[in-house]
Amino acid sequence: MTATPDLFGPVQLGDIALANRIVMAPMTRSRAPGNLPNALMAEYYAQRASAGLIITEGTAPAANGRGYIDIPGIYSEAQVAGWRAVADAVHAKGGRIFAQVMHVGRISLPEFQDGAEPVAPSAVTPPGQMYTPSGMKPLGQPRALEEAEIEALVEAYGQAARNAIAAGLDGVEIHAANGYLPGQFLAPNSNQRIDRWGGSAENRARFLLAITDAAAKAIGPARVGVRLSPGNPFNDIADPDVEGTYTPVIHGLSGKGLAYLHFLDAKPAFDVIGLARQHFDGKIILNAGYDRARAQADLASGRGDLVAFGSKYISNPDLVERLRRDAPLAAPDQATFYGGDARGYTDYPALAA
Is the pLDDT of residue 1 over 50? Predict the structure, then answer.
């Protein structure tokens, strides 16, 4: 008889042995001036190293992947050195850490691109505004990527994966959720191409599958995960046939030996977890505002293999111990979520022993 999975029990995730099934979800915190990981970030992640797995904040694989203020990159030697200090700090505490590789595509502005236009599958302007050092500004029209540029970006994802391993990180997560570049390729309203990168659902999935293959070839598939959010309208993603879009995605990601699929639950109108369970051969990470009881229940039912917690990790660096004791959780200060210094970042206390 197979034992019921325990939230606090060990699990093998691809090539990596994890101490428990609790994952720290990726969260942008905008504390990397110059797009460089730094000592404050190393302290922040090391404080949370009791998680079975930490997935870092979104990290740009190329200079044209930058958006938002002070997000880190993983495309330069200085950035690799910065991530090495983060990885060393987490490993010194016994933790495991994957870098989330995030190209924001059209969710950017020229001032984050050294004056250049943001790039996207198609020149479709998203609604909304973005915070900049000089205040809020509307998002503008991006420039459609040339096919040769798409091929270069595929290689950039492979190089980002190599850089992550060179920095001592344990693997990478391809961020294909929340309406960033891979999600922009998937969605018919943001991808209006008529070449092999657009049109049919299979063509729209091509970019995500290509960048995943590039990362897997670079560092081995068992150190690569993918994050998806089917049906999530964030960043002006609209899809009248989510099931038709994501069925070839799930099939395409299956059989590659990937470490995991990480689902941000937007409650799509079809059973995406069931589809993944039927076809995907790796672990499934669930992420949808979980508490202890619901996490245990969904592990016990076989719905997922690990559970990711987001904002709870901001204000509870010892979240694993708090969940183990079923202790009260500290509330985060939303005013300090993005940017700033140690306040609201590394100054949340742990439980008394």
Answer: no
In contact, 239 and 189? CB cutoff 8 Å: yes
Using alpha carbons, list the distances in angstroms from residue 51 to 19, 47, 89, 223, 288.
8, 10, 14, 17, 17
- Band the pLDDT of 133: cuts 50, 70, 90: confident
Which residue among 180, 260, 290, 313 is the active-site one? 180
Name 13's bridge partners.
16
Whether pTM exceeds 0.85:
yes
For strand 260-264 and strand 135-138, is the pairing parallel, antiparallel, or unpaired? unpaired
Nearest-angstrom CA–CA distance, 92 and 49: 9
Using CB atoms within 10 Å of the CB of residue 157, give its burial: 0 to 12 exposed, 13 to 18 middle, 19+ buried: buried
| Contact between residue 346 and residue 75 where contact means Cβ atoms under 8 Å apart | no
To the query of whether residue 180 is one of the catalytic residues in this protein, the response is yes
Which structural domains are found in the chain, ordered by start? Answer: 11-336 (3.20.20.70)
Report d(CA 284, CA 159) in Å as an integer. 25
Closest residue by Cα to residue 30 from 118, 132, 106 = 132
pLDDT per residue as tens digits for the range 249-279: 999 999 999 999 999 986 777 899 999 999 9
CA distances from 260 to 13, 60, 103, 198, 226 (A): 7, 21, 20, 26, 7
